[in-house]
């Protein structure tokens, strides 16, 4: 598929995609975006957790029977297809390299080598940690707030408080970065019920004075220490991203009253 066919539908002005617009638009104007992104990766000296240069290579370079994450860990080569999914994956490697490296390290460490090495019928064993890391990689949004109240409102699904009552000051207190490349792919053709797995971070009020690059660097560094062997899916919070102020139109009262999207917090039964 030509770049024009693949990348033209992307609306780089959407707030969720805007942080990726500069490299994204530049790559969309090249005949070979994979070669172009490798140049950017080399310029930024991207390395995996073993110190090997990160390069984006054709999917066919992945040996038969080899696990994707193990291959990246062992070689630094990221098997890449000519599609939007892998295009956004490459852009996230550029934006948050430390998080991507850490996720790859965690996932590769969780892959069990089959007893019959090289037997394509033997599948790597999955576990809770690897599943959680995969969900983060594919569908995470990093929700940074400078007030504990905003984080609490999100955790408790107090949508009216978070998105309506605090609407005018929402972006003064909160910052949302879409990380999951499957989530970013969906945003090319957005729909109301799009829901991210949000990871919540509390930041000092000084965070609001930083440049976009400084905020990205802080998130990239902070997340590395939080992504560890204790990672589970229980640490995520649902975030209907089209509810973020300005991300969908119209956002009237009826929009937020749709409980199929803005679901109330489940109350766990204490009955025995």
UniProtKB/TrEMBL annotation:
UniProt cross-references to InterPro entries, sorted A to Z: DUF3025
One Pfam family this sequence matches: DUF3025
Name this polypeptide is given: DUF3025 domain-containing protein
The species this protein was found in: Noviherbaspirillum humi
């Amino acid at each position: 598929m030509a770049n024009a066919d693949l990348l033209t539908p992307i609306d780089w002005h959407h707030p969720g995609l805007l942080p990726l617009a500069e490299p994204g638009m530049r790559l969309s104007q090249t005949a070979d975006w994979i070669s172009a992104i490798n140049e950017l990766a080399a310029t930024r000296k991207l390395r995996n957790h073993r110190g090997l240069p990160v390069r984006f290579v054709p999917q066919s370079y992945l040996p038969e029977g080899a696990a994707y994450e193990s291959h990246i860990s062992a070689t630094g080569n990221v098997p890449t297809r000519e599609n939007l999914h892998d295009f956004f994956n490459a852009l996230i490697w550029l934006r948050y390299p430390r998080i991507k490296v850490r996720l790859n390290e965690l996932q590769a460490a969780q892959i069990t080598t089959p007893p019959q090495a090289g037997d394509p019928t033997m599948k790597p064993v999955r576990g809770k940690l690897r599943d959680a890391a995969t969900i983060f990689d594919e569908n995470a949004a990093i929700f940074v707030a400078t007030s504990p109240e905003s984080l609490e409102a999100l955790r408790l699904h107090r949508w009216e408080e978070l998105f309506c009552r605090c609407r005018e000051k929402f972006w003064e207190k909160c910052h949302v970065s879409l990380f999951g490349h499957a989530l970013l792919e969906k945003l090319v053709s957005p729909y109301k019920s799009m829901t991210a797995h949000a990871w919540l971070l509390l930041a000092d009020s000084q965070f609001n004075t930083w440049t976009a690059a400084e905020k990205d660097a802080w998130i990239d560094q902070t997340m590395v220490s939080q992504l560890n062997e204790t990672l589970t899916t229980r640490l995520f919070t649902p975030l209907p991203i089209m509810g973020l102020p300005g991300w969908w139109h119209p956002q009237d009262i009826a929009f937020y009253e749709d409980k199929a999207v803005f679901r109330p917090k489940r109350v766990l039964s204490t009955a025995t």
